[in-house]
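Lecture notes, unit on protein representations.

Consider one protein chain, 316 amino acids long.
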Amino acid sequence: MAEGTPDYPDTGRFWRLVQDHQVTYLGVAPTLIRSLMRYGDEEVERYDLSSLRITCSGGEAWTEAPWRWFFKHVCKEKLPFLNIVGGTEVGGCNFTGTLHHPLRSGSFGARGLGAGVDIVDDSGQPVGAGQVGELVLRNPNIGFTKSLWRDDERYLDSYWRTLPGVWVHGDFAMRDEDGLFYILGRSDDTIKVSGKRTGPSEIETLLTGTGKVSEAAVVGVPDEIKGSAIVCVCVPMPGVAADAALQAELSQAVVHGMGTSYRPRQVLLVSDLPKTRNMKIMRRVVRAVYQGDSPGDLSSLVNPETVAELQGKLAR
């Protein structure tokens, strides 16, 4: 563990720590990699990372561009890259990568042990391969918290009462034809456009896939015709002009990948996105600010100044 930030006093600090201390097991988060890849391939390539044996990640769902960047430039396309997801504040491991399963970008090879991890539809029935469903646990996880602080009812309402008899984690998940698992983002972040349901990560993958932005937060806002409209808040890569041309290019990338009904109502360009201390993007805060609502308690944000920047963009 190292004190401070990964890109200060210079943008190579994180990789230099690996080199100088001969790190063998390296843990990262998608947000960390998205921020470091902005500094270019050469910033990581000039360090000796040959001591690494295993890498792992957690924190939130990956999009394809940063996953592939890390696997190519840090893992050298041969090191194990183990993806792990749990409940952080409320539970333990739900899905994990292993040394014995294949890899695809953002995938998990296996269920967490003993927790009865399953993917179900709205009635609690298991869904088939290639279908999106709610991540649930059929058995108590050994890592479960007992409750929420002074709020047993909220704990029961949030996790146990949505589908009787199972723990509803609040994430969308999917299993592919080869048995690999994927987390697709928070189910309460779901966007329904013209009757079609999607998660933010599907659209965010299209935006970061342009190579013009390092991070993106996609939210749905009320729309009288479509039900929800798409709003994209993006962080441009260094050297990329934050102008109308970029906004148009990003909007077109979404249309090309998803269809014309998903054309964003607005594309906003900012210097950073609001994140928690464990580096999860707070789409709830982005949505609230866009709609002019109170963003609520911001004490968990590591960068609350991003809220003021977003409010300033919308005031113009």
